[in-house]
Amino acid sequence: xxxxxxxxxxxxxxxxxxxxxxxxxxxxxxxxxxxxxxxxxxxxxxxxxxxxxxxxxxxxxxxxxxxxxxxxxxxxxxxxxxxxxxxxxxxxxxxxxxxxxxxxxxxxxxxxxxxxxxxxxxxxxxxxxxxxxxxxxxxxxxxxx
Length: 145
What we know:
By secondary structure, the chain is mostly helical. Helix content is 74%, strand content 3%. The protein has 2 domains: 1-78, Multidrug-efflux Transporter Regulator, Chain: A, Domain 2 (Orthogonal Bundle); 82-145. It contains 5 helices and 2 strands; from the N terminus they run ααββααα.
């Protein structure tokens, strides 16, 4: 099998329904495994993808596995494979995006805190001026009595 197969073909090959296959591939994608999509953005499966799905189907039938646990186990077992270097890179890219977004949010928070600090200093200075004026007024009142 040197070509890519569509959902219906893979479902027939694995003897499962297309809806079950959809459930499975969505779980794989939840954990950052990316399947090939053609120029029309239609999902296509490689031979390696079919092997992963076969492992999933085998594991999910074991009593100690749910479908999701089986997906995680299959992905863990295949992380070291050279064929999954793309998956590892994709995972790193996703983590990098999350970190960049976190840094962006942290910078926004720092900017807001700096603005707030400026406002606090401004209020403090106004308070000092008010106290000075009040003290001056009280002194003047005492001298006029």
